[in-house]
């Protein structure tokens, strides 16, 4: 056997009640390479990796690691073998510090068997410095943004000095700048002979960083190919099982009157004097770097957090929004960015998760119209191609992308006039992604106003009629579709855009 | 050839899955049935109709509390005040239901219709529950602390109201706890056996709560809050209102339980039902309600209450000493929950 091979997984099968998640799957990974694992939502990527790190016991199959047959029955075993993993679903301990999270389960012990906090902080600081991540080791995890939480998870996985690192959608919550940073770290690891299994739905990333690609579909192995020998379209065809053209199916919709108008919105130093309008039929993209206040702005508009000052008008009427319930009553809907913390209700069935925001419509005198609810769920399932054995399935057992689809349909069912989407296609596969984009266009054509926050520049450029760029809590620039170029947006996002040019006139 | 075998394996796998799913759902029922079988072998008296009716009658009070606390626990809350609220409701209701010819009457000369003590008990329960709910929802006090406070305060009020038992209650009042309806079960040589009214009350409350939890918007909101409070809020659920209502309902059921218990023993006592809330919480948890919220069913809780009831009764029949009873009971509760959580993996 090839001496370069570090991992061979063969004939791996794994079933859950009602789902065959993996069916005779194989995977071979080489030292010092990045091996991308690709496939649609629910294809079995995360499951395969969880089998590898001992979180799931496979029904059958064998694992060869560094030439030795191994049985990995718990995550600890995997770590001892030198396999660490960044999980798709971030699970920080919220009331612990960054340092405590990184050293969880292997805290440095000092005198009398007590935890040596000082060493832990110092080690964390050294680690973060080495990785060039700018975070305070003693900050509480709950105070970090999703993006920073993700960076901590990355640092943690690297800190084990593993020989094989699994990264399950590590870039789903971070912006281009951090992605570039992560890739730099990955290249460093490669040079030291570390192997990396990299799961993502972002094509650009795959072609930039991967050496080899394995594609799964419906729990089966489809192909393993060198990255240099495939192109985007053939890769998509392998994943989806059919050709897929036109990634951003942008269609123009007639743009009508202003529906949502925000003026001089301020909150506690994170949102500074933000003003913008959204019109009927329009898709407004909001871009910006991590921490630029994009999410803060829409959380304030939606009544999740209180504004200090400013004015919100809906269809010309000045409104007071004190809670999400108020916002919904005014025809707004918000798909939040943090699926786990503010989106899914994990231990509840898919059905409840889908219907929760629109139960008023689907009940009479407080009693649920169960037949109508079931029909609606089935229709949504077909429309968004949600993979779940049944509507009774607890949503936590769905793959990440399918959870996201359920949340999208939760909000569509409220029939909103103003649809705010914070990273709507995070973790969603190519096929479903263009499905959601198509849906956005259709909704715009139906006269809805859409606000979309995205960290993916191509998505912003591809979908928006107008782009608002946030920079340090302020509006750093605003561009109509024709002027929204990558350069303009990046300049505005870093505060280098002077609104002296001709576009500025529209704001006044 | 190969295809058939793998298809066979898959079919087998599916059957096993289905079996596992069945076990997952009904493990606690099987445990209960196992106990019933065991006890009927160990004791002749156990299966006698009178004894069985007795078992159900005995759990009716705790069962009412368990229904309320199940809903509270589903929202990730807890209610420790139930026993005390029950006692407060019981003494007040009893004082309004005394016979005027009794030697020691709280309100001499008072003779009000039966509806007055009933409404009083329910109102007291509702009030205490609403206060609990407001403390939790509006003042953001952890449920454990808020209801712990109510536990001592309500008990204090019960003792201030009457530091001795209030007895000599009207027959019409006592009928609530002692009467039987539907005397349709013939017993050789004795009058036919009926269904005790407390059991009917429990059944009615259980059915109402079950329908509410599974088929109304309010019920689904209760689960949603327990599943992820922040997500529910962003989805437009009025968290405060739902929480206050849930604690209020739990209090209401405690008031009802106070009515049932005082009329069954024919007196209202300030020291009633100490620690009942713990049995109720145990019943809910045995029945599969998760203390981390979002999970729980009324039928599960009723089975949990039956397990505790059968256990008490069986140990009595087997002449196990009271001290040993507590030890056996505690251990069996823990074991039942271990079995129940293991199957969830
Ligand atoms: N613990 C579980 N219980 C039941 N079903 C599960 C469980 N974990 C995964 N599944 C199912 O197995 C299938 C594969 O899921 P997996 O999470 O591996 O997909 P994935 O390829 O990682 O998808 P995504 O890109 O959306 O993250 C899905 O249909 C999912 O619903
Ligand atoms: Mg996944």
Strand fraction band of chain A?
Answer: 25-35%
What is the share of helical residues of chain A?
Answer: 25-40%
Task: Please tally the helical runs of chain A, counting DSSP H or I stretches of 4 or more residues.
Answer: 17
Judging by the overall fold, what is the CATH architecture of chain B?
A: Orthogonal Bundle
CATH superfamily of the largest domain in chain A: P-loop containing nucleotide triphosphate hydrolases
Discrete helix count of chain B = 13
Number of domains of chain B: 1
Q: What is the CATH fold-level name of the largest domain in chain A?
A: Rossmann fold
Question: Quick recap of the structure?
Answer:
Chain A has helices at 45-52, 75-81, 98-102, 117-130, 146-159, 176-191, 203-209, 232-240, 294-301, 324-329, 339-343, 350-355, 370-384, 400-412, 430-445, 457-463, 486-493; strands at residues 5-16, 19-30, 34-38, 60-65, 68-70, 83-86, 164-168, 195-199, 212-217, 220-226, 258-267, 271-279, 283-288, 309-314, 317-319, 332-335, 363-364, 367-368, 418-422, 449-453, 466-471, 474-480. With 508 residues, chain A is an alpha/beta fold.
Describe this structure in words.
The complex is a heterodimer of chains A (508) and B (345). Chain A is of the alpha/beta class and 508 residues long. Chain A folds into three domains: 5-92 and 144-240, P-loop containing nucleotide triphosphate hydrolases (Rossmann fold); 246-331 and 416-508, Rossmann fold, CATH 3.40.50; 346-415, no CATH class. Chain A is built from 17 helices and 22 strands. In chain A, helix 15 (430-445) links the parallel strand 19 (418-422) and strand 20. The longest helix of chain A has 16 residues, at 176-191. Mean pLDDT of chain A is 87; it is low at 502-508. With 345 residues, chain B is mainly alpha-helical. Chain B has a single domain, classed as ABC transporter involved in vitamin B12 uptake, BtuC (Orthogonal Bundle), CATH 1.10.3470. Chain B has 13 helices and two strands; from the N terminus they run ααααααββααααααα. Chain B has helices spanning 2-42, 49-74, 82-95, 115-137, 143-161, 171-178, 197-215, 217-227, 229-234, 239-265, 276-286, 298-317, 322-342; strands at residues 180-185, 193-196. In chain B, strands 1-2 form a two-stranded antiparallel sheet. In chain B, strand 1 and strand 2 (193-196) form a beta hairpin. In chain B, helix 7 (197-215) crosses helix 8 (217-227), helix 8 crosses helix 10 and helix 11 packs across helix 12. The longest helix of chain B has 41 residues, at 2-42. The two termini of chain B are 34 Å apart. Chain A binds chain B through residues 15, 17-18, 20, 59, 302, 304, 323-325, 327-329, 334, 336, 341-348, 352, 355-357, 359-360, 363, 366-368, 370, 410, and chain B through 10, 13, 17, 20-21, 215-218, 220-221, 223-224, 226-228, 230-238, 290, 293-295. Bound molecules: adenosine-5'-triphosphate (ATP) and magnesium ion. Adenosine-5'-triphosphate is lined by residues 16, 19, 21, 39, 41-47, 88, 387, 397-402, 429 of chain A.
């Amino acid at each position: 056997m090839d001496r370069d091979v570090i991992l061979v997984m063969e004939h791996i099968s794994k079933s859950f009640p009602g789902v065959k998640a993996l069916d005779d799957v194989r995977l071979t990974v080489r030292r010092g390479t990045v091996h991308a694992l690709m496939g649609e939502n629910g294809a079995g990527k995360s499951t395969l990796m969880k089998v590898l790190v001992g979180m799931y016991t496979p029904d059958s199959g064998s694992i060869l690691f560094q030439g030795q047959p191994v049985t990995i029955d718990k995550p600890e075993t995997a770590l001892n073998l030198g396999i660490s993993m960044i999980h798709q679903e971030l699970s920080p301990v919220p009331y612990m510090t960054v340092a405590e999270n990184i050293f969880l389960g292997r805290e440095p012990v000092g005198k009398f068997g007590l935890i040596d906090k000082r060493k832990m902080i110092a080690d964390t600081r050294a680690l973060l410095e080495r990785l060039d991540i700018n975070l305070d080791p003693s900050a509480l995890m709950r105070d970090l943004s999703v993006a920073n939480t993700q960076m901590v998870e990355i640092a943690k996985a690297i800190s084990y000095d593993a020989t094989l690192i699994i990264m399950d959608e590590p870039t789903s919550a971070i912006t281009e700048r951090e992605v570039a940073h992560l890739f730099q770290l990955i290249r460093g690891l490669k040079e030291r002979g570390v192997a990396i299994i990299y799961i993502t739905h972002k094509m650009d990333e795959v072609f930039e960083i991967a050496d080899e690609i394995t594609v799964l579909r419906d729990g089966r192995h489809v192909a393993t190919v060198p990255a240099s020998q495939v192109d985007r379209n053939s890769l998509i065809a392998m994943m989806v099982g059919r050709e897929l053209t036109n990634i951003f199916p942008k269609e123009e919709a007639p743009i009508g009157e202003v529906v949502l108008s925000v003026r001089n919105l301020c909150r506690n130093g994170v949102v500074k004097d933000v003003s913008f309008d959204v019109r009927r039929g329009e898709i407004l993209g909001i871009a910006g770097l991590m921490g630029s206040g994009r999410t803060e702005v829409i959380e304030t508009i939606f009544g999740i957090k209180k504004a200090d000052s400013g004015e919100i008008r809906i269809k010309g009427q000045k409104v007071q929004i004190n809670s999400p319930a108020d916002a919904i009553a005014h025809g707004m809907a918000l798909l939040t960015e943090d699926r786990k913390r503010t989106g899914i209700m994990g231990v509840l069935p898919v059905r409840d998760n889908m219907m929760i925001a629109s139960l008023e419509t689907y009940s009479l005198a407080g009693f649920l119209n169960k037949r109508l609810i079931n029909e609606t769920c089935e229709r949504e399932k077909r429309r968004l191609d949600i993979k779940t054995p049944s509507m009774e399935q607890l949503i936590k057992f769905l793959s990440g992308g399918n959870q996201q689809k359920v949340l999208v349909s939760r909000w569509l069912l409220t029939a909103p006039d103003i649809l705010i989407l914070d990273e709507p296609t995070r973790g969603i596969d190519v096929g479903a992604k263009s499905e959601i984009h198509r849906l956005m266009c259709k909704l715009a054509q139906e006269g809805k106003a859409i606000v979309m926050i995205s960290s993916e520049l191509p998505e912003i450029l591809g979908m928006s009629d107008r782009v608002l760029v946030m920079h340090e809590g302020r509006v750093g620039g605003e561009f109509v579709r024709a002027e929204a170029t990558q350069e303009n947006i990046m300049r505005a996002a870093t505060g280098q855009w002077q609104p002296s040019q001709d576009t500025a006139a529209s704001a006044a | 050839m190969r295809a058939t075998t793998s298809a066979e394996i898959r079919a087998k796998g599916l059957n096993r899955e289905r079996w596992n799913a069945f076990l997952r759902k009904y493990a606690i029922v099987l445990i209960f049935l196992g106990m019933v079988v065991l006890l009927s072998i160990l004791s002749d008296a156990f299966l006698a109709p009178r004894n069985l009716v007795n078992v159900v009658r005995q759990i009716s009070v705790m069962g009412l509390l368990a229904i309320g606390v199940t809903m509270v626990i589903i929202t990730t809350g807890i209610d420790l005040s139930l026993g005390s609220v029950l006692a407060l409701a019981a003494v007040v209701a009893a004082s309004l239901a005394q016979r005027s010819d009794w030697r020691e009457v709280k309100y001499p000369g008072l003779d009000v219709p039966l509806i007055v003590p009933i409404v009083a008990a329910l109102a007291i329960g509702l009030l205490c529950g609403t206060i609990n709910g407001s403390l939790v929802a509006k003042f953001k006090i952890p449920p454990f602390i808020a209801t712990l406070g109510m536990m001592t305060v309500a008990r204090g009020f019960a003792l201030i109201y009457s530091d001795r038992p209030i007895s000599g209650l009207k027959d019409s009042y006592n009928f609530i706890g002692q009467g039987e309806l539907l005397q349709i079960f013939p017993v050789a040589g004795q009058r036919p056996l009926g269904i005790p009214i407390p059991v009917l009350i429990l059944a009615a409350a259980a059915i109402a709560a079950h329908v509410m939890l599974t088929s109304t918007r309010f019920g689904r909101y209760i689960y949603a809050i327990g599943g992820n409070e922040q997500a529910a809020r962003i989805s437009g659920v009025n968290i405060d209102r739902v929480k206050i209502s849930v604690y209020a309902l739990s209090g209401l059921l405690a008031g009802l339980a106070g009515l049932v218990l005082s009329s069954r023993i024919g007196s209202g006592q300030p020291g009633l039902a100490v620690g009942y809330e713990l049995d109720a919480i145990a019943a809910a948890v045995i029945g599969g309600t998760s203390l981390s919220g979002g999970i729980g069913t009324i039928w599960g809780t009723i089975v949990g209450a039956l397990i505790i009831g059968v256990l008490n009764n069986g140990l009595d029949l087997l002449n196990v000493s009271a001290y040993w009873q507590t030890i056996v009971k505690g251990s069996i509760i823990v074991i039942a929950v271990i079995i129940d959580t293991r199957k969830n993996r």
